[in-house]
Amino acid sequence: MRNVSNIFRREFKSYFISPIAYIVIAVFLVVTGWLFFPTFFLMRQANLNQFFTLLPVTFAFIIPAVTMRLFSEEINVGSYEMLLTMPVSFKEIIVGKYLAAVAFVSIMLAPTFFYAVSISFIGKMDWGPVLGGFLGALLLGAAFCAIGLLASSLTRNQVIAFIVGLVTCFVLTLLVDYSLYLLPGFLSGLTGFFQYLSASHHFQNIAKGVVDSRDILYFLSVSFVALYGTALIMQEKK
Amino acid sequence: MIKFDKLTKYYGDLCAVDHVSFEVKKGEILGLLGPNGAGKTTIYRILTGYLRPTDGNIQVKNFNIYDNLIDIKKLIGYLPEAAPIYHEMLVYDYLEYVADIRNVAPDKKLDHIKELADLCSLNRVMHMTINELSKGFRQRVGIAHALMGNPEILVLDEPTSGLDPNQIVETREIIRRIGKVKTIIFSTHILSEAEATCDRVVVIDEGKIVANDTIEGLKKSQKESSFENVFRNLTRGN
What we know:
The structure holds two protein chains of two kinds. In chain A, 83% of the residues lie in helices and 0% in strands.
């Protein structure tokens, strides 16, 4: 546990040493604000529904950029050898890096809470869906961080890690919408199955303000499976 | 203190280390010599937990690499070739991070870092980022990394490679100083350095041990007056 905290602190600090963190946060806020506010003023409703509808797609683009360096860069530069030969376990390395990415995503998400605060001044806000949305956003972000970490462990090339992470997050995001169109008629019974696999479906459930244990379990399962897969891949590389 | 027992490592079909067995006694400075590609780095990487052997075992004190890898890592300070270190970190921050991972007591941490900075002549670069340092200084940071937490065993993979003559002399001096109190395994292509520093050498070629003796013993058995000729006789240079 002590080493998880040491690795977490180093990784978290390293985000903010380079300009990457500031660029990613700025891009995230500009894109989400730009996509959200025009429709918000057209709808004239004091809620964040449109923001939370678009969030899974935005996260699918942004989070792989946050996580792509976590293993790829270390393996490419060689510092991974220094790290792995110190008295730390795989588990500590993976959890430390994962928590650093989740903390970064939380910080990136935090300013968007001011959208809710500022909107509450101009209309009557139902806080249930808003708080549910932010809880869902954290769970979704954590699951995508785990997927990004898995993608980063696959290759020493950060661009490939980014693309693998992006495609995986994107498929999980759009699965529910496109499975309806792409599935041949005789497989239409599988729609429910694809719906269960879809991250955006579970996220939208929570964002309605209904915190169902099945949705929480889904995000925790995705995170666990991806982190476990990362551990297997890193062990296999030995 | 360290017992290599029929250590074998395959990379696909290539046998990099082939049933290597030898022992290192406590307090000994052992030179692991051989041409490029002989398998030295692979042996170090297995000993330090970076790679898993295909077969065989290594015992360090009462620990073995399969069951007690973290305990072995605690006993070993390792400097990989070219010391790949996080380039964006300040030297002081990096050493503090290593001290935390190696569980140096908080009240002794600062003194220990100062002691290593003195030993490795790092005082004037402590507040520089690692990517601003010359190769020689990076190598010294790597040596300080290996020495952090006073590990009983030091494994140094070509600690003087790529350094200028003055830096080579300084690095050799550091190894000699710490060699008085620690068990050291190191490799070098500078044979005079091995002659000046090692109590005993193990020469490997194409993954197999071709000699294991003192330098004087090898000269006698090979009936050569220069160690360079002995080395050439034993390896592919003959």
